[in-house]
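Lab notebook, design round three. We kept the backbone fixed and only want residue identities now. Task for the bench partner: fill in a sequence for the structure below.
Input structure tokens:
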């Protein structure tokens, strides 16, 4: 468990915050590897499931078409006056983002995830905090 989260990471993971579109460090990472939870290091998304979204309103955050099996849970989110599906880390309960139905992904799902909730580990061992 990472007890040294930055204020930005705490805002996302513990307060269910949302980072500004285009502000995340992992948005344009296109290397081969795995995206982990920044709080507990659980593997969440493979780089092969990341894609560039064309869905208006969902552009500006890392987009994935599927999560690693049994790595995330879903929770109903009625904040902001609308019904959404929140994505949380199954291991630590950290808020990651939301999942939406999508026409621009191969699975019909669009995981819109905050970079600050993730840490990328490349195939070469390089780690990049979101």
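Proposed sequence:
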């Amino acid at each position: 468990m990472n007890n040294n989260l930055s204020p930005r990471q705490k805002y996302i993971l513990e307060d269910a915050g949302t980072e500004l579109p285009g502000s995340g460090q992992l948005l344009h990472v296109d290397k081969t590897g795995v995206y982990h939870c920044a709080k507990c290091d659980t593997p969440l998304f493979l780089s092969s499931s990341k894609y560039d979204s064309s869905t208006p309103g969902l552009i500006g955050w890392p987009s994935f078409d599927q999560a690693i099996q049994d790595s995330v849970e879903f929770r109903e989110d009625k904040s902001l006056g609308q019904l959404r599906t929140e994505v949380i880390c199954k291991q630590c309960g950290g808020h990651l983002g939301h999942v939406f139905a999508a026409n621009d992904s191969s699975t019909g799902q669009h995981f819109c995830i905050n970079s600050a909730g993730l840490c990328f580990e490349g195939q070469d061992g390089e780690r990049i905090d979101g």
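Keep this in mind before ordering anything: The chain has one domain: 7-129.
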